[in-house]
Amino acid sequence: MAEERTLAIIKPDAVSRGLAGEILSRIHKAGFAIVAIESRRLSREEAEGFYAVHRGRPFFPDLTAFMSSGKVVILALEAPGAIARWRELMGATDPAKAAPGTLRKEFGTSIQNNCTHGSDAPETAAFELSYFLSGRQLL
Ligand code: CMP
Fold first, then answer.
1. Which amino acid residue places its CA nearest to atom 14 of ligand 1?
2. Lesser CB count within 10 Å: N end or C end of the chain?
3. Exposed, middle or buried, 101 (CB in 10 Å: 0-12/13-18/19+)?
4. What is the pLDDT, as a whole number, of residue 31?
5. pTM
6. In terms of C-beta density within 10 A (0-12 exposed, 13-18 middle, 19 or more buried), how is residue 102 classed?
7. Candidate list 5, 15, 117, 132, residue with the active-site label
8. How crowded is residue 108: how many other Cβ atoms within 10 Å of its Cβ?
9. What is the DSSP letter of 54?
10. In Å, how far from its chain's centre is CA 60?
11. Which residue CA neighbors atom 19 of ligand 1 most closely?
């Protein structure tokens, strides 16, 4: 399988509960290389631009308020088949439906506060990686 990159975010619910280190450890153990990493708080406008495909959905205002409510950890992850493998490690969007052992099952508390984000396709990964990370960070 070809090397691939995906954009991962450790969301404010996980960072504020001190779970970033545990999630990073699981990322390493699962065999991903961390190409770039940055911890900072997003502005509401940045969160709105990032989730622009969801604009108009009922959960959009709450989602963008939540994503700009505290620090996040933004990551570029690399591995063979990274997009699918990171989604598998996260589990289903809704923690209640996520498989045992997945990050969202263990650490997510609601469909919104689901501890992590991951790109869902190569096109989205390209957009999301360039949305947050500079060319120099992605070298
Ligand atoms: P994420 O994978 O980051 O993509 C969109 C986010 O919207 C999702 O995780 C959740 O945090 C949030 N969200 C809130 N409500 C819903 C919903 N009903 N369906 C999908 N995503 C939702």
1. 112
2. C
3. exposed
4. 98
5. 0.98
6. buried
7. 117
8. 25
9. G
10. 17
11. 111
Residue with tokens 């090397």: 3
Domain ranges of the chain: 3-132
Instruction: Tell me the residue length of the chain.
Output: 139
Distance CA 65, CA 89 (A): 25
The C-alpha atoms of residue 17 and residue 50 are separated, in whole angstroms, by 23
Which H/E stretch holds residue 68?
none
For the segment 119-126, the average pLDDT, to the nearest whole number, is 98
Structure tokens at 20: 């970033």
C-alpha 59 – ligand 1 centre gap (Å)? 8
- Residue-averaged pLDDT of the chain: 98
Distance from the alpha carbon of residue 21 to the mean position of ligand 1, in angstroms = 23
Q: Is the CB of 92 under 6 A from ligand 1?
A: no
pLDDT per residue over 53-78, tens digit each? 999 999 999 999 999 999 999 999 99
Q: DSSP secondary structure string, 103-115?
A: HHHHH--SSSS-S
CATH architecture of 3-132: 2-Layer Sandwich (3.30)
